[in-house]
């Protein structure tokens, strides 16, 4: 079930970005039915056992979908984000969302996980969980 704060986030976007955010949240929530979801650092994020898995955020020119362990998915359409293992895909219209790709990435996000939950405790060292 989608957290009402995420629905509020989606509804606060421009009409075209709202379509992107709503579609992403519905597919993510359907595929990660046991995941906790909430607004984290001002953006919608889904967690498995307290570990951030996937989220999205409104950027100036697009909506960025981010997978915390996405660099390990071996997917050409996901681009490196940051200095750890995250990867992203950016959208400017709902039509750009390939649901089959999204579902495959979400499946991989459950099978391939790096331990972001304890990264501060480990002083920036990232350990693979799955």
Query: Hey, roughly how much beta strand do the residues contain?
Result: 15-25%
**Largest sheet, described in full?**
6 strands, antiparallel
Rg is 14 Å
Structural class: alpha+beta
Secondary-structure element string: HHEEEEEEH
* Separate helix tally: 3
Q: What helical percentage do the residues reach?
A: 25-40%
Calculate the terminal CA-CA distance, rounded to whole Å.
Answer: 25 Å
| Name of the CATH class | Alpha Beta
**How many β-strands, per DSSP?**
6
Strand order of the largest sheet: 1-2-3-4-6-5
Q: Describe the global form.
A: globular
Number of spatially distinct domains: 1
- CATH fold naming: Aspartate Aminotransferase, domain 1
In CATH, the architecture is Alpha-Beta Complex
Ranges with pLDDT <50 over ≥5 residues? none
Average pLDDT, all residues: 92
In summary, what is this structure?
By secondary structure, the chain is an alpha+beta fold.
Task: Walk me through the topology.
Layout: H1 4-11, H2 15-31, E1 36-40, E2 43-48, E3 51-58, E4 63-67, E5 79-80, E6 87-91, H3 99-111
Helix pairs in contact: 1-2
């Amino acid at each position: 079930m989608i957290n009402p704060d995420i629905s509020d986030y989606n509804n606060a976007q421009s009409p075209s970005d709202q379509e992107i955010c709503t579609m992403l949240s519905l597919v993510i929530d359907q595929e990660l039915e046991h995941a906790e979801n909430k607004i984290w650092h001002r953006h919608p994020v889904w967690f498995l056992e307290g570990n951030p898995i996937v989220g999205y955020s409104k950027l100036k020119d697009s909506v960025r979908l981010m997978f915390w362990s996405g660099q390990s998915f071996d997917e050409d359409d996901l681009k490196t984000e940051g200095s750890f293992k995250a990867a992203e895909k950016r959208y400017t219209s709902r039509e750009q969302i390939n649901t089959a790709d999204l579902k495959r990435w979400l499946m991989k996000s459950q099978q391939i996980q790096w331990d972001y939950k304890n990264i501060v405790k480990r002083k920036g060292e990232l350990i693979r969980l799955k």
